[in-house]
């Protein structure tokens, strides 16, 4: 259901019923909170529901899941599969077969035509059943993906304990915790909030975020600001809410079954390829039938009235329809998708739509995140830096075993213990404490230290307070687990594990008043905590009853002259932060960043509570940071976080490079950190950065003539060129079906488009990709240099700059925002790249949607998972490379199926009809045999082909070019028809004519005889002609089956030798389904030619084995020729033979 439909239904509800009657609570937004809790059986908001209350509520209300959209049933699917696609053409053939029996066959109807109609009908039904079975299997796989990706919600239950539970287990009365990026799991009333804004676009179609409050603002339930509804997105702030309705009782559950985003009905590349195949087959069939009927009406029937009757020409037309149809292709497509999906699931890759797997074959560029994708997402704080030179190395061993109660009371002297270690630059707490020290000795040491060590203490305090990580109880688990952002978890563990600090106790001592969470735009987090006379004494040397403001964020963002003008020394003094000291701190940060560290700066200041309350009261709703001071901060120190690369990523990156896939790192981290990690994972290679170096650019001034900025292009610091910036493209939404967002600029004019062109574009959309990118083969050549682009420079880049930046072999985009990522993806696509992009945040959704392949992370937000085409269950970059390899395997196998089906299934079946019509020879293959060949022999072996393993060179080829690498292209048709098809057709006719020659009928008595063929023979010989012809047709049929077996063995590989990629004994390439397919084809031949019932009903005869032996010789010759072709290509890569090969 579309958003517009939902909005219209909501409007109707507003007009008819101001209050939504399906909610179990009447006017939940207006009644007093205590009365609402009473109706929901909630005794205490702070404690939440008990286990018994939850069980009782679940019994009453059921699971929190709207009634699922009804999936198509077996009967519906069977009807659809029976009358669509290739089966629609087969129905035409079947109907004409019955008509050829009666009334066209009167007065002497041929039972063979009736049997042909029955066989075609049975084939249609069998084909439909097979397709339904495969379709249901694919739906089952998609359903299983949804079960593997459960959605979690944080609730407060059982005496106030916070825990994460499955969203489906929510019940009315639950207290849920809301954070930025969450999807609202049910209809709720807000009980507390901080800058909470929600996006109800999925419910109302309105994309503007709505600010929430705790009091009702409207009589209408749907318009009040203290209610949030199922599926709404938390775009800003945090809060708590009480669940008032779940499942079908929610507003959205009442309006529609479910409005989840789904890609299953979108037109994908694979859909287009199948559509092109059907269009090709349809055109060839129609043209061929028109030709034979024109030939029959204009020349053949008037000249030779007794040769081919009207009824016989109808049967020939049926043969043409059946001959052109590669009936095994739809089943092969569905089966290969199921096989590949299972394979990818085993590789921890879940695809939301099986058809999108084909896109992997064309991926030419990957824009990947750093944290969690290239790295382990297990950040550890290893160093603390403060002042100009002071540094403390966090011990890598387990924490020192102090009593936590002692640390609760002695937290004010924590930094004194650290000061002992600070005498040595890389000392640790263990250096000053021996294992045998008594507790009183340690207390005595701590009490003797002066308060000069406050910067270290403030860093630890900031790690406790300016941190949204917290311990939660996971459902069905007994232990508390720390959950939150990776950096927050690292700082939380620094306090808890390394220094035995009870973080929750510290937070209780310094109650949080207000918070601005980290977001990708600001790149910092600010919290305000209440100070008291007992715990504030060493913090910036301020007095009691004040508010402590703690700010942490990226160094280059927060350590600016506007925000920070002072710093705290090692002795606790507050001094001016001069430019020299600021540059020295930034230099330290860059040094650590070059070693792969992520650096977070911490700033502090204190203000009076009255001033803060006034700021909080007067802050603008459009500027959440208005509640905090804009300046006046003091620099305290730096946290050095290390997130090591995943072990398998470097090899995966090299594998992608071998596959000619470019990898661009797009990260929000500092450039030095990004460069360090990129070097470790081979995104930046020694061959480029050491031999050639880096390119950069910078704004230097304004051009006096045009008034536009001037950019200097630098290579290794030296001036390379200058450029005057031109018109800068901007993002703009469009209603075109081909794309959601496009690039435009203010200088472009809106030219009206005629309805004819729009109609053509609409039809063309289903057969070819939208013309929104340039051709891949027209792209500019890449320069062997690396480049690092900062996100702050992206808004200024024009077409020339994007061409120059994207022409570099190695790319890093640092300090980027989600809008920057979207822009990068679009610019790459406009230059012909097929882009896969990774993302895990809510704001990554536009880029994931826009990309040709959106890759979400299991650890990411629900919004990113919904926007992506696939989900990495292990959050591992190497899984993307495995998925690309699997996608290439899918494309290869479908091409192999096509090139197997076309030579025998269409080319070698239409020429008997055409030769019969044009050259006047007996029909070499009956319509019945053509039907059996297409529907059984070829189907068996083509389905065995889809189980082929990948060739060893599959990841050494460049990505497929979408506008050239079609399932059907000229190269494949040339190979299938002109080479293999002609060899098979020649072989089958050779056996056919040899049989005639053995019966005393040379070629001179066969060709161009038309209706005089039988008149050449004596009456006794004429009686034998039907048997001779029927046997010859069976010989042609069996010879064709034999040649297709050799074709199967030949087309298994594109370039690899059969003997190195054999299907029988090689563990790497074994495919025993080929043997099953070959046996099934042989048994079908025996059934058609050896069973007396079949011989009588369909006019077949036993085949003399002697006359099909040439097929083995020609088949072996074809096999050897193809092996020599592959050998030549392997030894001469890039040769002319490779360029014309399929």
Automatic annotation (TrEMBL):
SMART domains the UniProt entry points to: Cation_ATPase_N (SM00831)
Source superkingdom: Eukaryota
Keyword list, A-Z: ATP-binding, Cell membrane, Membrane, Nucleotide-binding, Translocase, Transmembrane, Transmembrane helix
Sequence intervals crossing the membrane: 74-101, 113-133, 277-298, 318-340, 972-997, 1035-1051, 1072-1093, 1105-1121
Gene3D superfamilies in alphabetical order: Calcium-transporting ATPase, cytoplasmic domain N, Calcium-transporting ATPase, cytoplasmic transduction domain A, Calcium-transporting ATPase, transmembrane domain, HAD superfamily/HAD-like
NCBIfam families, A to Z: ATPase_P-type (TIGR01494)
UniProt name for this protein: Cation-transporting P-type ATPase N-terminal domain-containing protein
Species this protein is from: Adineta steineri
């Amino acid at each position: 259901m579309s958003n517009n439909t939902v909005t219209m239904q909501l409007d109707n509800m507003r007009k008819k019923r101001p209050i939504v009657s399906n909610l179990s609570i009447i006017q939940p937004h207006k009644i007093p909170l205590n009365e609402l809790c009473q109706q929901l059986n909630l005794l205490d908001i702070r404690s939440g529901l008990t286990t018994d209350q939850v069980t009782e509520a679940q019994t009453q209300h059921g699971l929190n899941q709207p009634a699922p959209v009804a999936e198509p049933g077996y009967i519906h699917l069977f009807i659809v599969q029976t009358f669509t696609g290739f089966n629609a053409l087969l129905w035409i053939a079947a109907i004409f077969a019955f008509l050829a029996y009666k009334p066209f066959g009167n007065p002497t109807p041929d039972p063979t035509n009736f049997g042909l109609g029955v066989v075609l009908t049975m084939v249609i039904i069998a084909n439909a059943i097979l397709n339904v079975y495969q379709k249901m299997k694919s739906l089952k796989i998609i359903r299983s993906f949804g079960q593997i990706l459960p959605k979690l919600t944080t609730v407060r239950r059982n005496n106030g304990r916070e825990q994460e539970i499955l969203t489906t287990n929510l019940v009315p009365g639950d207290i849920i915790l809301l954070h930025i990026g969450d999807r609202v799991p049910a209809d709720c009333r807000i009980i507390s909030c901080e800058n909470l804004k929600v996006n109800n676009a999925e419910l109302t179609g309105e994309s503007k975020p709505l600010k929430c409050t705790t009091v009702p603002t409207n009589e209408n339930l749907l318009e009040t600001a203290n209610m949030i509804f199922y599926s709404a997105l938390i775009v800003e702030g945090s809060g708590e809410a009480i669940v008032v309705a779940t499942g079908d009782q929610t507003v959205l559950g009442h309006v529609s079954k479910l409005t989840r985003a789904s890609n299953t009905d979108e037109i994908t590349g694979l859909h287009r390829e199948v559509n092109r195949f059907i269009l090709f087959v349809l055109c060839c069939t129609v043209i061929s039938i028109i030709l034979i009927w024109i030939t029959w009406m204009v020349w053949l029937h008037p000249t030779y009235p007794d040769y081919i009757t009207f009824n016989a020409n109808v049967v020939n037309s049926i043969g043409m329809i059946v001959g052109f149809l590669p009936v095994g292709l739809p089943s092969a497509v569905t089966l290969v998708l199921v096989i590949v999906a299972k394979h990818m699931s085993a590789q921890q890759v879940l695809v939301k739509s099986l058809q999108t797997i084909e896109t992997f074959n064309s991926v030419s560029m990957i824009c990947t995140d750093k944290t969690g994708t290239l790295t382990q997402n297990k950040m550890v704080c290893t160093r603390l830096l403060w002042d100009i030179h002071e540094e403390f190395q966090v011990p890598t061993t387990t924490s020192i075993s102090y009593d936590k109660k002692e640390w609760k009371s002695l937290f004010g002297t924590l930094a004194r213990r650290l000061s002992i270690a600070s005498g040595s630059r890389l000392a640790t707490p263990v250096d000053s404490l021996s294992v045998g020290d008594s507790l009183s000795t340690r207390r005595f040491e701590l009490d003797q230290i002066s308060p000069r060590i406050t910067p270290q203490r403030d860093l630890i305090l900031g790690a406790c307070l300016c941190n949204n990580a917290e311990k939660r109880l996971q459902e069905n688990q007994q232990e508390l687990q720390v959950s939150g952002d990776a950096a927050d978890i690292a700082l939380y563990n620094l306090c808890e594990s390394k220094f035995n600090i009870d973080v929750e106790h510290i937070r209780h001592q310094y109650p949080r008043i207000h918070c601005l969470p980290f977001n990708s735009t600001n790149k910092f987090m600010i919290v305000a905590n209440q100070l008291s006379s007992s715990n504030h004494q060493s913090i910036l040397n301020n007095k009691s009853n004040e508010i402590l403001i703690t700010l942490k964020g990226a160094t280059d963002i927060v350590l600016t002259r506007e925000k920070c003008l002072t710093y705290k020394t090692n002795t606790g003094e507050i001094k001016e932060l001069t430019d020299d000291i600021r540059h020295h701190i930034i230099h330290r940060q860059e040094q650590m960043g070059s070693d792969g560290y992520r650096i977070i700066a911490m700033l502090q200041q204190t203000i009076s509570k009255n001033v803060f309350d006034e700021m909080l009261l007067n802050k603008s709703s459009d500027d959440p940071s208005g509640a905090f001071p804009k300046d006046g901060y003091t620099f305290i120190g730096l946290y050095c976080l290390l997130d090591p690369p995943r072990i398998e990523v470097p090899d995966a990156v090299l594998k992608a490079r071998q596959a000619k896939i470019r990898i661009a790192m797009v990260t929000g981290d500092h450039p030095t950190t990004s460069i360090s990690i990129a070097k470790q994972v081979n995104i930046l290679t020694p061959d480029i950065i050491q031999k050639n170096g880096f390119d950069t650019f910078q704004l230097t001034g304004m051009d006096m003539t045009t008034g536009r900025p001037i950019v200097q292009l630098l290579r290794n610091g030296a001036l390379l060129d200058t450029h005057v910036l031109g018109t800068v493209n901007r993002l703009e939404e469009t209603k075109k079906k081909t794309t959601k967002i496009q690039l435009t600029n203010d200088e472009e004019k809106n030219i009206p488009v005629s309805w004819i062109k729009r109609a053509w574009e609409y039809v063309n959309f289903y057969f070819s990709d939208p013309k929104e990118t340039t051709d891949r083969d027209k792209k500019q050549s890449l320069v062997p240099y690396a480049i690092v682009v900062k996100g702050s420079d992206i808004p200024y880049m024009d077409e020339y700059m994007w061409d120059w930046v994207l022409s570099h072999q190695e790319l890093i985009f640092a300090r980027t925002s989600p809008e920057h990522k979207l822009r990068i993806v679009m610019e790459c696509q406009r230059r012909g790249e097929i882009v896969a992009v990774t993302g895990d945040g809510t704001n990554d959704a536009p880029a994931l949607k826009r990309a040709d392949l959106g890759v979400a992370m299991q650890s990411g937000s629900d919004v990113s998972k919904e926007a992506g085409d696939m989900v990495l269950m292990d959050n591992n970059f190497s899984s993307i490379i495995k998925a690309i390899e699997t996608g290439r395997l899918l494309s290869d196998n479908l091409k192999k199926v096509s090139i197997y089906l076309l030579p025998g299934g269409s080319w070698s079946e239409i020429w008997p009809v055409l030769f019969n019509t044009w050259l006047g020879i007996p029909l070499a293959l009956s319509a019945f045999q053509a039907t059996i060949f297409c529907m059984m022999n070829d189907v068996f072996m083509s389905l065995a082909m889809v189980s082929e393993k990948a060739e060893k060179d599959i990841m050494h080829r460049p990505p497929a070019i979408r506008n050239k690498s079609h399932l059907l292209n000229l190269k494949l048709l040339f190979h299938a028809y002109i080479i293999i098809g002609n060899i098979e057709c020649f072989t089958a006719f050779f056996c056919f004519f040899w049989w005639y020659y053995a019966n005393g009928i040379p070629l001179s008595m066969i060709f161009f005889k038309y209706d005089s063929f039988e008149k050449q023979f004596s009456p006794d010989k004429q009686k034998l002609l039907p048997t001779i012809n029927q046997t010859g047709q069976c010989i042609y049929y069996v010879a064709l089956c034999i040649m297709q077996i050799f074709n199967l063995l030949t087309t298994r590989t594109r370039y690899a030798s059969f003997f190195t990629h054999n299907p029988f004994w090689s563990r790497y390439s074994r495919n025993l389904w080929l043997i099953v397919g070959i046996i099934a084809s042989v048994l079908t031949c025996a059934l058609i030619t050896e069973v007396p019932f079949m011989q009588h009903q369909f006019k077949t005869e036993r085949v003399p084995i002697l006359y099909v032996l040439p097929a083995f010789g020609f088949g072996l010759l074809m096999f050897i020729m193809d092996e020599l072709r592959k050998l030549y290509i392997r030894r001469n890569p890039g040769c002319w033979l490779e360029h014309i090969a399929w």
